[in-house]
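quick one before i forget lol
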Amino acid sequence: MAGFDKNFTDELRTRLSIVDVVSRRVPLVKKGQNYWGCCPFHNEKTPSFSVNEEKGFYHCFGCGEHGDIISFTMKSNNVDFRTAITELAAAAGLKLPDYKPKSAEQIAREESYFQLVNDAAQIYQKRLYDTDGAHALEYIRRRGFTDDMIKKYGIGYAPKNNIIANKFINVKQDSLIATGLCRRGDFGMYDFFRDKLMFPIFNAHGKIVAFSGRSLDGSEPKYINTTDTEQFHKRRTIFGFNFARDAIYRANRSIVVEGQIDAIQMQCNGFPETVAPLGTALTEDHISILCKANRNIVFCFDGDNAGQKAAARACDIVMPFLRDASDVRFAFVSGGKDPDEVLKTGGTAAMHKIIDSATPLVDFLWNLANAGFTVSTPNGRTQAEKFLKQKTDKISDITLRGEYEHEYNSRMFNNWHKWKKDKKSAPKIELPEIDAITQNTLIYITNQYPEIAEQYAEFLATLNIDLDGDAADMNLNKTAAEKYIVSLKLQKYLEKLHIQKKDLTAKLLAGDDVREEIEKIDADINDANERLEKLISM
């Protein structure tokens, strides 16, 4: 519709997930890479309505309806374009502007912007291989960057002088300032980036929109980025996303690290689905963009205090974006290292071990509550419970929120509130697991005392082990052999009772009246413990 330009509608599509928009009207279930439901535009019993979150469109294989969040809102609510845009803007938290079609002047200004930053990138790249960029080139090669990597990511060097201001002396100063490359001082124009290792920042479409400069002399801040411009907004731009987009789809996840160099090294060493925020400030916009690509995210941060805080902030931000198909995890690189160092010292295998052992969000949040409050006291437990509720209340999916609440209620009951009698621990007998040692012991007993094996044949069959063959002499008399099997049987019986009690406790928390069954299990556990204690004392 005239009056709204493509920039604003693209912003809506970036901010809002089509799955979220459609699921308000159509129950969706994820199957493979798409979500499926019954089409709202014609009657059907078998779901043929497909929603692709990454591409932002829906398609019905029954009636042929096809579109994006705007067309869906128009058709499902029977409203015009302006009304649909208004509703979506409110949902996205955006102020509805009264846009007019772009003027020729505006189009020329945008084209000039992209041309200027692209030309600047080429200048920086050439300077990296000049004499004055030798120290920058030596640094980046020392960090493990090859010439192919340098070329792919457009890495360059901004010299100490005002090379950009001097190179574009004939360009209007306002245009140069609008790119963030230069500023106006008391003595004329000067470069914003000087003596910096330069990393171009690409938008999702692969166009350079800004730069991130890294200091080479140890000065702080370590990185400085182009200030926000008409074409670049730091809080809505993810470093490396243009390179990682397809890999995220293939890997069915994204990995988020803290820095640009970490992101590049991860992408080039077996983890092409890796991205990084610009700086440490992860935003809701970053998470929104990632969730549109894939709702499975692994946050991989340094194991120091700063990394722990960044992870806690990421956990807080991601909660409203959780869906039943989400798999959010947290991995930490310990020992004062970062992913770049891990890849150098331990290779891809070491990094895989860190990523594969990442903590699920449900456990990470539980650990935060236990570490942040003194749960051994009533006051501390109250604070921890409020903390968990505050976080889970942010989950917009009502069913999923209920599952999180149920999970934490169960954990609080079992770990914080369950009354524990002050009694001596249940007797224990040193028994090996059902491994080679236990198997050999039972083979010896079976061969040496077949009458005992026959007596306990039903129990031995439940162990699902091979008792054929020969075994070394265990020097067990008949009494000791029988005691061994009875002790093993009692221990296995106790394990079974504890599993049954755990299941019944979960039912109790869900509202089922199973108190009598739990009491019976407790009586059986006490009886088995007494029998085991008596056996040991024999």
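fyi Confidence is low (pLDDT under 50) at residues 419-433.
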